[in-house]
Amino acid sequence: MLDTFEILTTSGVVLWSKSYSAISPAIINSLITNVFIEERTLPGAGIADDISAANNPPYKYDQHTLKWTTVKELGLIFVAVYRSLLHLSWIDKLVDNIKTIFVDLYGDQLKKPHTTIVECHFDEYFDQQVRELEKTALNQDTRVAEASALEEAPISVSANLRDEPPPLPGILSRGQSKNTFKDLTSNESTPIATPDTSRPSTPASHILTGKGGPGGKGSRRARKAANTPSAYASSGEESQRKGRPKSSGPKKGRKWDAEGMADEDSDTPLDYSTPADGVNLGDDEGKGRPGNVEGVDHATWGSKTGKGQFVLKDLDDQVNSILATAGAKKESSTASTGIVGSSINAIGGLFRNVVGGKTLTKEDLDKAMKGMEDHLLRKNVAREAAIRLCEGVERELIGVKTGNFESVQARIQTAMEASLQKILTPTSSLDLLREIDAVTSPSALSLKKKRPYVISIVGVNGVGKSTNLSKICFFLLQNKYKVLVVACDTFRSGAVEQLAVHVRNLKELSAREGGEVELYQKGYGKDAANVAKDSVSFAAQEGFDVVLIDTAGRRHNDQRLMSSLDKFAKFANPDKILMVGEALVGTDSVAQARNFNTAFGAGRSLDGFIISKCDTVGDMVGTLVSMVHATNVPVLFVGVGQHYSDLRNLSVKWAVQKLLSSNQ
Amino acid sequence: MSTIAEWAHALMSPSPVALIVGILLVLSIPLFLHSFVFRASGLTTLPSILLIGPSGSGKTSLLTLFERGTSAAQTHTSQAPISAECHLPVGTLASSDRYRSVNDPTNLRHKKFLLVDTPGHGKLRHHALASITNPQNLKGIIFVVDAATLSAGDEGLRHTADYLHDILLVLQKRTESKNKAVKALKEIPILIAANKGDLFTALPASLVKSSLEMEISKVRSSRSKGLLDSGIGMEDEGDRDEWLGEVGSTEFRFKQMEEFDVVVEVSGGNVAGG
Ligand SMILES: Nc1nc2c(ncn2[C@@H]2O[C@H](COP(=O)(O)OP(=O)(O)OP(=O)(O)O)[C@@H](O)[C@H]2O)c(=O)[nH]1
Ligand SMILES: [Mg+2]
């Protein structure tokens, strides 16, 4: 069963929620940070609008699965949380339907400025949907598994069921049926007769509204069937409205006005109609429907609703008509508006193109986005990253109105700027010195032991690992740290000597500054992981502040060498694993970053990039974006020259400006 | 010759499309001029108070508490700023009312103000910065911190101090800003709201103050020792003169901000729970 359903705004306020079993707020928070803010699943996904929950990738967190959808215009997020063990085939439909109903009922309130309050009495609508969708799911399930469990069924149930096969009571878990029962009894506390006659509810029908439960698990047909009800529900509803125009007319009028809402809420859900009436009602409804298979199906289902008797017919009708109009709207919007209309639209569009105030459509954006994509490619952004960035921006912009005197082009430019800025900005500030201090001289109160801070540098061959390690070392020496440089490239001949030269230079340079640096090396052929481990304990004994470990360069597609990184990370247990990437690299950057990021085993990833040789590429700093984009790992430093002092913090503003500048 | 005649002909009998466009243009120009000119002059907005702080500190909760009066709404991580219209309780005197007579009937009315919430996530702090660098009738800032994560050596303390340091630095440098509205910000009171006082691990306000001051001293010195920015050559970023508070002081104190007309006050409390 569902754990929790929440409707919240992008500003973080929960507008409505229903909880069947309490879940930690961290679950939904992690959905928001990972999917919407940091866009770890796919960029732009969080802002994509009008995508059904089925098309959004389910988010899994700590034994829970989250299904979600958004309404960009109103800044709404709809989330359903349930245990990953369960297979709830109807959950997508539920999320979508709830979205439609909620927006229809409270859309106006949501547009009010300067308030976070939305008066909503949504419980009944939600319960109605859950009941209905569960029932359809159950129907499918029973038909699949009709052979079994007949003898277990209570007599009253089979009696009520007429020609429908009974549900599988064995499936219902105790907790679940208790849940329903609670809902029902709370409803019964406000019994008010409806226009239809009332009749007592039987315990059997309580069970009837029970859950599909795990019975649906693994059944292809059930899953498929649960995905189809959109078609048959709406067609059914339409015919129903046609069949009974008198009864639905006035009701429809009532439901649209805001005042009426309160009234309806007070005469809550009890349809106490007599069994006979229920059957009649069902039959009537059945007659109104087309005689195809789905129609028949729907008729029996309708009669059961008649006996289900917890649902006020009004509410059912209202919800169904909301869903039906929404469906119809979607269809009509795709239909063309005729020649006159379209030519006027075209003129208006051209006009608005100049003065702004135009609502952007995919067609408007397509050409301009292509231009933006080419621009990014020229800046050396990898194709994959460029495409996904543009897709993200496009999804964000569709349906957005341009501002006064703002052209489409300008709007895209600003959106891309914001998007790049968001990608490149790190989640938390990257203050290396302070992190080192926290480890090497922990506060007396925090009960942590003093230990050296370990940084290791990885990357493919020839990107400048040793050079950048020396630059970092120089920076640390300037700040008077005691640094141990470890040569873990036990593979390529000459690597250790090269590092030794760097260390000698650094010693000379730092002699008057007050820093201290030593080289730790064990020659060639040793296992790098062991050397690293030994060096860290050596550094701890000798009172070094920072350990800088240089590793062998390796191709990111060299399976054997890459797999040794896993052991290396476990043995050396570095505080920071930094990857050096070349600004020149181009398309390969995505694969490089991704493979290195996953090479350290579960639970460990890269902590930052150093992008080297930025001085040689001018404005074409696309590698920055490609690498961050592929991994969500921030850029810590950029290398801008040949000297030890040519290391810089990344200024996001600087990078974005270079990426968007068009002086070529 | 014939081309001229054609031209004249075309000019005299415009296509209906051109006609419509022309008429629309003529009619709309005054409208646009109007909106353009008057937008710049700025409507008088309500006085606003800004909520800033790291993620999860309770900003949105506080906002909903102020708005609803009785209890806060359930909240999750914010992605977008939001403002809510709130009232001071009847009888509260705003400092702008200092010179009103006690019997002034307006004193008996609710004083309205806008409370503006901003997302605290690292990637979304530009919203908060924009509200300071482009202020709309800004009267004060509430910096909300989670007092339960501020014990020494805690990640939370580091991140909170980082953020607070950056905000204070922006305020300190506001006189250098090109934006007139920023320069016009005279006094800015900052309330550091030590939230979640109901939790067992929460520090009292006095400790919150001292540990933040200590941590900001560290931020300040490590920033001054850090590497240069890659954007060092850019025009409006040149100066490295980014020392928060009194130059030459070893320890940062919130009092040092008073020199820049920024008054910092710390007080404890809790939005939810008990
Ligand atoms: N115990 C306790 N919890 C609180 C208090 N105030 C807020 N919380 C909880 O802290 C959590 C985060 O609160 P939010 O208001 O969403 O945090 P925020 O500052 O808006 O965070 P962002 O929107 O991510 O910047 C929520 O689960 C609140 O219920 C408090 O006084 N005591
Ligand atoms: Mg918030």
TrEMBL record, chain A:
GO terms for molecular function: GTP binding; GTPase activity; signal recognition particle binding. GO terms for biological process: intracellular protein transport; SRP-dependent cotranslational protein targeting to membrane. Residues 242-254 have a biased composition (Basic residues). Residues 174-204, 227-237 have a biased composition (Polar residues). Keywords: Endoplasmic reticulum, GTP-binding, Membrane, Nucleotide-binding, Receptor. Its main location: endoplasmic reticulum. It is a peripheral membrane protein. It comes from the Eukaryota. Residues 156-301 are annotated as: Disordered. Residues 634-647 form the SRP54-type proteins GTP-binding domain. It is found in: Endoplasmic reticulum membrane. GO terms for cellular component: signal recognition particle receptor complex. InterPro entries: AAA+_ATPase, Longin-like_dom_sf, P-loop_NTPase, Sig_recog_particle_rcpt_asu_N, Signal_recog_particl_SRP54_hlx, SRP/SRP_N, SRP54_GTPase_dom, SRP54_N_sf. Belongs to the GTP-binding SRP family. Heterodimer of an alpha and a beta chain. This is Signal recognition particle receptor subunit alpha homolog.
UniProtKB/TrEMBL annotation, chain B:
It is found in: Endoplasmic reticulum membrane. GO terms for cellular component: endoplasmic reticulum membrane. The gene is SRP102. Gene3D superfamilies: P-loop containing nucleotide triphosphate hydrolases (3.40.50.300). The chain crosses the membrane at residues 17-38. The lineage of its organism: Eukaryota, Fungi, Dikarya, Ascomycota, Pezizomycotina. Pfam families: SRPRB. The keyword Transmembrane helix applies. This is Signal recognition particle receptor subunit beta.
